[in-house]
Design a protein that fits this description.
A hairpin with a 2-residue loop joins strand 8 and strand 9. This protein is α+β, with helices and mostly antiparallel strands and 371 residues long. It folds into 3 domains: 111 residues, Acyl-CoA dehydrogenase/oxidase, N-terminal domain (Butyryl-Coa Dehydrogenase, subunit A, domain 1); 99 residues, Butyryl-CoA Dehydrogenase, subunit A, domain 2 (Beta Barrel), CATH 2.40.110; 145 residues, Butyryl-CoA Dehydrogenase, subunit A, domain 3 (Up-down Bundle), CATH 1.20.140. The chain contains 11 helices and 9 strands.
Length: 371
């Protein structure tokens, strides 16, 4: 087991960082978060056609590049660092992972090439009004008539649900939880963008009214797929959180070096030193947790369920604490709209809650290790 990144992986990180420094600068993030769509279609096309990011972890047989979860984690870390406004997590992580683990080769052949090319923006519609991430939270019914299926119900907090072309829906049938593919442009689908604290990552309410749906995988076999998808998504989110945490740490240290008070840089004061030291410890520990979880995901290791919940819980706490301390170290300017500190703070909070908060994942971790 080698936790050092290879030369190729370091080059991937450098390439993605250069691209995002140019395409996801602070002014561009602020511009996009004020739009309804929340992303730039031209940049989305460049991500797919120039860098191949949407298809990075999709097997070559389905139009992707066939890289592992480690490379995907690197890309997500850089995206978290730059607060990228794009439907990448919803399409390249959530929907793609669900399709890859569905065991349905015909669905993979039908949908994955479009996701890999960027032509299809996909998302996963899972949570409902209850906000419950567990199996019992899925109550939206799917009804079969002959060989056809329809869905009637409402899904909440659907990442990029208002711009997606393809919605992978978790619904309940007589056999249990099942996954379905829905054409988002169907007239029976109603989508509404939600007002969220984190304006850099859009969410939507999606309502289905007797909507035609295509069964993915087997009837009643959806929860096994969802379980694997949620674990891998938690690992992906942890890597994204690490990127944001590292960025706010750098912002804090840089400011502490140049902000002068009482004739000396504030970084020379013990209170600020302690804050920065604690942030460094937590960020480095978060990296260890996220990187190991990504390795488990890439290897298909049996430890994945444990490391996924561990990484999600710890990285959520570390990012939120680092983002909050970043505001404190910046003082008055850290509270202003003009400074970027609040953007990272809001992203940290929304990511802390998404896919289950730290308390939820610690409970899940305890169950999985038999405590």
């Amino acid at each position: 087991m080698n936790f050092a990144f290879t030369e190729e992986q370091d080059e991937l990180r450098s390439s993605v960082r250069r691209f995002l420094d140019d395409k996801s600068s602070s002014p561009e993030v602020r511009r996009l978060m004020e739009t309804t769509e929340g992303y730039d279609p031209a940049v989305w096309d460049q991500m797919a056609n120039q860098l191949g990011l949407q298809g990075l972890a999709i097997p070559e047989e389905f139009g992707g590049s066939g890289y592992t979860f480690i490379e995907l984690g690197i890309v997500l870390e850089e995206m978290g660092r730059s607060l990228l406004c794009a439907p990448f997590f919803s399409s390249a992580v959530l929907a793609t992972t669900a399709l890859l683990h569905s065991g349905d080769d015909s669905a993979k052949k039908e949908y994955l090439p479009g996701i890999a090319s960027g032509e299809t923006i996909a998302t996963l519609a899972f949570t409902e009004q209850s906000g419950n991430w567990a199996e019992e939270g899925i109550t939206t019914p799917a009804t079969q008539s002959g060989d056809a299926w329809t869905i009637t119900g409402e899904k909440m907090f659907v990442l990029d649900g208002h711009v997606a072309n393809l919605i992978v829906v978790a619904a309940r049938t007589g056999a249990g939880v099942s996954l379905f593919a829905v054409d988002a442009s169907d007239a029976s689908v109603t989508r509404e963008a939600l007002s969220t604290m984190d304006q850099t990552r859009k969410q939507a309410r999606v309502e289905f009214n007797n909507t035609p749906a295509r069964l993915i995988g087997t009837d009643g076999g959806g929860w096994a797929t969802m379980n694997a998808t949620l674990d891998l998504a938690a690992v992906a989110l942890a890597n994204e959180q690490v990127g944001g945490a590292q960025k706010v740490l750098e912002m804090s240290v840089d400011y502490a070096k140049v902000r002068v008070q009482f004739g000396r840089p504030i970084g020379s004061f013990q209170a600020i030193k302690h804050k920065c030291a604690d942030m460094l410890l937590e960020v480095e520990s978060a990296k260890s947790a996220a990187y190991y979880a990504a390795w488990c995901a890439a290897e298909g290791n049996d430890e994945l369920p444990v490391t996924a919940s561990l990484a999600k819980a710890y990285c959520s706490d570390a990012y939120f604490h680092a983002a909050a301390e970043n505001i404190q170290i910046h003082g008055g300017i850290g509270f202003t709209w003009e400074h970027d500190a609040h953007l990272y703070f809001k992203r940290a909070k929304s990511m802390e809650l998404f896919l289950g908060d730290p308390t939820y994942h610690r409970e899940l971790l305890a169950q999985r290790i038999g405590i």
